[in-house]
Structure formats: C-alpha cells, structure tokens
Specification:
The complex is a heterodimer of chains A (508) and B (381). By secondary structure, chain A is of the alpha+beta class. Chain A has helices at 12-15, 40-52, 104-115, 129-134, 142-145, 177-183, 223-238, 280-287, 299-304, 328-333, 357-368, 395-398, 422-436, 473-478, 483-494; strands at 3-6, 33-36, 57-60, 77-80, 96-98, 152-160, 166-171, 193-199, 210-217, 249-256, 262-269, 295-296, 315-318, 321-324, 343-351, 379-385, 408-416. The radius of gyration of chain A is 22 Å and the shape is globular. Helices cover 5% and strands 52% of the residues of chain B. In chain B, a hairpin with a 5-residue loop joins strand 18 (232-237) and strand 19. The chains are: A alpha+beta (508), B mainly beta (381).
Chain lengths: 508, 381
C-alpha cells in the first residue's frame, strides 16, 4: 500500500507544498491527499483508488514543475513517486533502468559508479527523473550526446483505460509505438503514470571536464559592448558550434538584470571522446570575450547573483527576538530536499539563429530598465548553447521533441520571496518577453516566439501559463506540423476520459 | 401514434405522496404549486446564438423585455427563491484554460430583469457544462460538465454568487459506440428530495449514478448500469421522490426506476417503453406528479403519460402534434398550467396548455421566436 497522507497527518503541510511558493497561496486549491508510492504496484493500486473515488490524480516525482500543474489540485490526490527509486528489476537484463523518483544527481552517481555511463540530462541535481525525462531531458552534455529521450528504449507506464481501469503497459517502438513516441518528450501529466524508463544503451560518461566562469560588469557595460557580447556568443553557436569537435562545449550566458551588478558566462567543456586533451576549441571560444573585460568568478558566486537576498517567509517576533517559523524538513534540509525554494516564474524560447542586433538592443533595454519599487535582482535570461547532437537527423520523427534546428535555448527566470513582489516582477518579465518576441514574428503571433526562421517555440519542461492567452499555444510547444494532432490522437486512445490533465496538458 | 385523451389511470392521494421521507419534503412545495395562481410571469430563454432572452409572459403572448449576452448558454435554472438565475455556459475554454463556466444573474424581483453577478469558472477539464441542479434549500448548485465528465458542486453565497467549487467529482467510463461514447458524458443531474443525494445520468458510460452530498462534498454512493449502448440522457425524479424516469437515448427506451432517497439507491427498472428510432429525447414531469411528458427530436409530437400513483408506471395519454416543430427540450411551468416545448432547429417556443391539477394537455400555441432555444426557466410572482 502507498503511504497515504491526508490533512490530519503532520507531514501534510510539508508534502502538499510546491517548491515554487507562488502556488502555495490558496489553501482551497491544495490537493486533499498525497499518495507516496515506492513501487509500480503501489502506484497502480493508489491510482485505481483515486480514479474510483472520482478524484483527479496529479503526478509528482521531484516536485520541480514550474507551473501549478501538480500541487494545485483541489480535492484531488498527488501521486508522489519520489520514493520510487528502484535501480533495477528482474527482467531488466542488460538495460539501464531509471525510476521516476530518482533525482538526477542520484541517477548520475548510480550510472557512473555501476556502469560508467550517463544521461545527457539536466544540471540541477535535485530535479526528479520522471518529469525531466518525460519532457525531453536536456542538459550540459546534450550538445555532445543529444537528449535523454533519444536513448529511451522502453517505458513502463500506468494508463487508465476507457472503462476506468488502471493498466500497466510496457511500451517501446514495437508495443504501443504511438504512446511510446508521445512519452519521448510530450511532457508529463498527459497520458499516464510512468514508473520506469529503460535504456538499451547510454553514452559513456566523460572522464573529465573543464569548467570556467566569467562575469561582466554591468556598471561599465555599454549597449554596444553588450550587443557585441551577445552576437559573439550567438554567432559562435550558429557557425563554429555546429562542428563536431565543439559539441563537448556547453555554455550558458546568464543575463541578469543590471541591478544584480554583473552578468555571467559559465561553461563546461570536454572533447568528443570524453577527455580534456585538446583544449583548443575552448580557448578559441573564450578568446571571443577577451575584449569585454570579463572577470573570472567562482561558480557559487555567479550562481548566487541570480537570487535576490532571501528573507524568511514567516518571520515573527517573540518578545525582543525575531524568530523564523519553518516546516521541520525545510529547516533541516531545505524545501523537500530541493535546495533554494521561493517564488519563481519562467519562460522559454528556442533560437535558430544568432541574436540580431535588434534583439540584443531590446534585451539591453529591458535589463537596464528599472521599475520604481520593484527589485529586479533575481531576474535572469539564461541563454544556453544548444544544437550539436540534439539536431541529429531522424530524432524529431522518433520522439515528441520537434525542436531540432535550434542553436540556443533561452530560459527566462525570476526568483524572489515575498508575495507582495509578485505583481511588479511578473509584469516586468511579461513586458520584457512580449517586447522581445514581437519584433521578428508575424504580427498575428506577436508576443511569443512562434515558429519561424528565427524561433522554434518554447520548451514544454519550462511551461509558462502566460502562453495560454494565445490560441496558438500548442504550436509554441509542439510545432506547426503534425506533432500536436498526433499527441491528441494518442490522448484520445490511451486516456479517453482525460484522467490526466493540467492547464497545459494535451487537449484531445 | 395516439391523439386521444385516455382516462386517468389513478388519482394521487395524500398518503401516496408522503410515502417515504422524500415525499414528505416534496409535498408542501407541490401543494403550493397547484394552489396558487400567478399574477406576473417571466420567461428566461437560453439562446444558442449567445444570449439570454427575458420575456414578460401574458398568457400566450410573450414580450421580449431584455436580451443579455451569455457565452454558449446551454441550460438556465432559477433559484428556489427566484432571486438568481444560473446559466451553464457550454464552452470548452475560458481564459485560456480547458473549462466551462457558470453565470449567476440577479433577477429583479418585480420586473424580472437580469443583472450579472458573476461568471465563475468550473474546475479544470470541466468543459461544456450542460445541466445544473439546485438543492431545495437553494444553498448548493451542482453542475454536470458533459465533455469533461466532471461534476462540480458550489456553495451559494447569500447574494446568489458562487465561489470556487467545494467539490469536484470526475467520472470515467465509456460505451460501445465509438464516436459518441468514447468517454463518460454526464448528461442530467438532479437533487433528490432529501437534498443528500445527486442523481445523474451518464450518456457516455451507460450508467446512472447516485452521489452523496455531505458537507459540500460529493462521494459516489452507487452506480446502476443501464445496459451496453443505452446512452441514458434526460431524466426526472417524481416529486414524491420514489420513482425516477430516464430516457435511454441510444436504444430509444424510456425507463422507470424505483428510487430510495434514504439510502440513495436506484433499483432495477420497473418499466421500459421502447420506441422505434433513436434520437435526442426530452422529458418533464408535471408538478402534480400525475403526468410525464416526452418528446423525441425526430418526431413532431409531445406525448403525455399518466403516472400510476401506486407504482409510478406509465400509460400513454394524449399526444399533441407539433406541426413542423422539431422538439429538443421540454419544461413544465411551476404552476402546472403550461408545458413549453423548445424547437431548437426551428427557433420557436411552443406552449401547450395543461390542466394545473391533473396535467392533462389541451391546446398549443407558438409563443416566442428565439434563435436556437436551448432551455427555458419561468419566474412567477
């Protein structure tokens, strides 16, 4: 039996929470119960119970969903798979198993120690494998090795048939191949509950890598220099970055708001064979920025600049003293064991070309714009290198990640702590995004990176409900061709009662 | 086809009405309905063109006094105190999210005019709501979302407005008809006289359900399978509370079930009347409980059925021919003097005069022209 946590349980207050505290505000929106499952059998039994009770199941592995797709489930049940961490099962043979409850850090450690392989997954240690892989699974090694779902061989998934009965399916390219393709990047919470990912092969982990961190001073940054940095960065990925000897180079430009003081450039590099014997490509890349007075910084310092100064969420006074009220687990290891918690908002864009001068100027304008009374520290436009092996031929057709022509992937992020800051911060972020993506798109799609010669829409693992204001939001995430209709067909076939739904789930 | 008037099969007695707790609750309202004469009447019509039409009713003359916009109104329902009109907006998307909405309108107590109190979103996936039910005390509103297969329950504020759903219940199921029964489709729902249960028909999964209503929450009490491919649709609960009628649209049968409001249990059918062709069906009960009325979309007639006072069984009474009309919905006026037949495709509303005590039908008249009339509610001052 799954561990059932209801409102009367001491753990409920902690386990009902989202890592993003923006979704904790409304008690009426909270799930009625949480079912913690350690095995697929427990998950199946709990899911059947939830369906029979007429409740809505939402699924959580690591709890890092950017939107409120999981925790805001009024009267429903969260099927929490964070304890489902099976490393292998009888029958797995030589295949690698990744359970949805494993955090990416645990996956890296386990695969490395046991087999010397890895997944080209994300850079955040605490993110759960379930949601990460369901949406594609992209990270620092993706230019070298592609997406995690490009390697996926089999998926174990609980679906609910048209009669309302839970069923365990083992799907691959020969068994329910349509559902299998949909599970390769279509996004979580759409078709069922994935209880296992299996891989016939995975890339060998690099033996070593080189990291470097630079930062640039906003105080002395001119618009011309800023534009030149962005264009140097983008031009590299558009040209030199397409050559295989550079595919081991991953770089992220962390364009913070000017009020943060500095913005950063972080990178990791290895040669295609996983060594660091030849550093010439790295040197060549770093040379591009020498003229802009970068300063070497430690990673932790650069990372911290992304965040506004934290204040305790629940400070109170006790006589002469201030005390902070925290949930026990949060006080002990952080929120759900997930590091920084607070309020956050995200947006995304895939870029097919380098920055145009107009884009760079727009970004400069927005990042140097101040809004009276709004603290914009904690705002970052993270521009990640992309392409390389991700853009290998045939991968788009075999998976549900269609963005296979991009060279950069942008993630807009904001982090803060106090609810009263929500309106000002969100408004600035929306204005920034709308301004930037109204310049090089057809006016009827203004405000979003609608697929065209510059953009390939948005990343489903960085969901942004602001995009729901556009009737064309499915095309932003799933393209303008046949992928979304295909996913709708899969949805009708395997979840005809729409048991699994959230604000951005596939609408059949 | 029958067009004559059959003699009444039985007469209701007080003893028969008060059988069971449900009957005791229903009786005062019932007697009120047949004992008082209306002095002023208004009709509220949902039009598929996206508006609500308010009519002042003078016998067979309806005068339009107001027209207000309303997104895809599918069903209208007046609160028991007639102060609020609720409208199910049969939409798929609201503010970018997959959900329908319900509108609440304040009803002017004297002039019947509508003023929007608010438009309330349903829960996620509760798309295309088609039917509403109000508890007898007017404190709870239940919504059946046909496409999303979800019920929402709302507590009603003092001013008639709605907040967030107090309970959400998701149905799962299907039937053998791949096109129309690929998933559950809640069709009609009704509070029983006790107010502690909701009865519902599910067209998609061939089921009748009873949901317990406790402290503003819904819980499944029981399910009754109506037969593979039957497609239960429009239904009505007898005012005495112990008999439940339901159209089975796909197999074109009219079934009569025994219902126990104490336990919330639907029994096996006590009668099944078969009709030759499947189509959309509507039904309504006369407030006296003595007559049931039915229509079929592909037959231009209104049939009346005598309700046996002892066992609820039906025997056919008068059939009123509707000319060229295509009947899509029927409503009985609370005073029992009129049966309104909506002709969706033809854009007309017909009034068939009824005997307020017995429900016997008399003459018909076309009282209003409204594009795509979907539903009508009557307010009587």
């Amino acid at each position: 039996m799954a561990i059932k946590i209801t409102r009367t349980d001491r753990r409920y207050a902690m386990l009902r929470r989202s890592r993003n505290l923006r979704w904790d505000a409304n008690e009426a929106e909270a799930a009625a119960e949480i079912e913690l499952c350690e095995t697929a059998a427990q998950a199946a039994e709990a899911l059947q119970r939830i369906v029979n009770a007429g409740m809505r199941p939402t699924i959580r592995s690591g709890g890092h969903c950017y939107e409120d797709f999981v925790v805001n489930n009024p009267g429903g049940a969260i099927l929490d798979l964070s304890l489902l961490k099976t490393v292998s099962l009888p029958g797995d043979g030589t295949r690698y198993r990744i359970s949805p409850g494993l955090e990416l850090g645990e996956v890296y450690i386990d695969l490395y120690k046991r087999h010397g392989v890895t997944i080209p997954g994300g850079s955040c240690y605490e993110v759960g494998a379930g949601g990460h892989i369901s949406g594609g699974g992209y990270g620092v090694l993706s230019r070298l090795h592609g997406l995690t779902i490009d390697y996926l061989s089999e998926v174990e998934i609980l679906t609910v048939d048209s009669k309302g009965h839970v069923e365990l399916r083992r799907i691959d390219k020969n068994h329910d191949p349509d559902l299998f393709r949909a599970c390769r990047g279509g996004g979580g919470g759409n078709f069922g509950v994935i209880t296992g990912f299996l891989f016939d092969r995975l890339p060998v982990a690099p033996s070593e890598v080189v990291n470097a961190h630079l930062s640039f001073d906003w105080a002395t940054m001119t618009e011309d220099n800023f534009t030149a940095i962005l264009m140097a960065f983008g031009d590299y990925w558009a040209k030199r970055g397409s050559e295989p000897d550079t595919w081991g180079l991953f770089a992220a430009l962390g364009l913070t708001h000017a009020s943060s003081g500095r913005f950063s450039l972080s990178l990791q590099f290895c040669n295609p064979d996983g060594s660091c014997d030849d550093l010439k490509p790295l040197e060549e890349f770093l040379d591009l920025f020498q003229g802009f007075d970068p300063v070497e910084t430690r990673a932790s310092t650069a990372g911290e600049q992304r965040f506004a100064q934290r204040r305790p969420a629940a400070r109170q006074t006790l006589g002469r003293y201030s005390i902070d009220r925290l949930l026990w687990l949060e006080a002990t290891i952080g929120d759900s064991g997930s590091g920084h918690s607070g309020r956050a908002a995200y947006k995304s864009c895939y870029m097919k070309q380098s920055f145009t001068r107009a884009e760079a100027k727009c970004i400069y304008k927005q990042l140097t714009r101040t809004v009276p009374g709004v603290d914009l520290r904690g705002s970052v436009m993270a521009v990640d290198s992309y392409g390389g092996a991700v853009n290998a031929k045939g991968t788009a057709e075999a998976t549900s990640v269609w963005q296979r022509s991009s060279i950069m992937k942008v993630q807009f992020q904001q982090y803060w702590d106090q609810p009263e800051e929500d309106a000002g911060r969100l408004q600035w972020m929306r204005e920034f995004y709308t301004d930037l993506y109204s310049q090089q798109v057809d006016p009827k799609y203004a405000g979003a990176p609608y697929p065209n010669e510059y953009y390939e829409g948005c990343y489903i693992n960085y969901p942004d409900c602001d995009m729901l204001a556009y009737a064309f939001w499915p095309q932003l995430y799933y393209g303008t061709k046949d992928l979304y209709p295909f996913l709708q067909q899969v949805k009708r076939r395997y979840d005809s009662n729409n048991i699994f739904h959230h604000k951005m789930s596939i609408r059949a | 086809m029958q067009s004559d008037v059959r003699p009444l099969a039985a007469r209701w007695t007080r003893r028969e009405f008060v059988r069971g707790a449900a009957g005791m609750v229903a009786l005062p309202h019932l007697l009120h309905a047949v004992a008082s004469a209306p002095s002023k009447q208004f009709a509220y019509v949902a039009s598929g063109e996206g508006s609500l039409h308010v009519f002042r009713v003078h016998g067979e003359v309806w005068t339009r006094t107001q027209q207000v916009p309303s997104p895809a109104p599918a069903y209208v329902l007046l609160s028991p105190a007639q102060r609020t009109l609720y409208v199910a907006n049969g939409v798929d998307v609201h503010e970018g999210l997959p959900r329908g909405t319900v509108e609440a309108f304040h009803v002017d107590p004297f002039e019947g005019r509508l003023t929007l109190l608010g438009r309330t979103p349903l829960s996620l996936s509760a798309t295309r709501p088609r039917h509403l039910a109000l508890s007898a005390d007017g404190k709870l509103l239940a919504v059946a979302a046909y496409s999303g297969a979800i019920y929402n329950l709302f507590r009603i504020a003092e001013d008639g407005s709605l907040g967030q759903p107090s309970s959400i219940f998701k149905q799962a199921g299907c039937g053998p008809h791949a096109q129309s029964q690929a998933s559950a489709h809640p069709h009609t729902l009704l509070f029983d006289a006790s107010g502690r249960h909701l009865l519902s028909s599910d067209f998609g999964s061939d089921r009748l359900s009873v949901l317990a209503v406790e402290d503003g929450r819904l819980q499944r009490r029981m399910q009754h399978a109506t037969g593979e491919g039957s497609g239960p649709g429009a239904c009505a609960l007898h005012p005495a509370g112990s008999v439940f009628y339901a159209w089975h649209n796909l197999e074109s049968t009219l079934a009569c079930y025994r219902y126990d409001s104490v336990s919330g249990a639907i029994g096996d059918p006590i009668q099944r009347l078969a009709f030759p062709t499947a189509s959309l069906h509507a039904l309504a009960l006369h407030p006296s409980g003595r007559m049931l009325y039915t229509t079929q979309e592909n037959r231009n007639e209104l049939r009346a059925w005598h309700v046996n006072a002892k066992n609820g069984r039906l025997t056919q009474a008068k059939v009123v021919m509707l000319g060229e009309a295509t009947p899509t919905q029927i409503t009985a006026s609370p005073d029992g003097e009129s049966i309104f037949v909506l002709d969706g495709p033809g854009g007309s509303i017909y009034k068939v005069t009824a005997d307020r005590a017995t429900g016997e039908l008399h003459c018909k008249a076309n009282v209003a022209v409204v594009n795509e009339p979907k539903s009508v509610a009557l307010k009587t001052i």
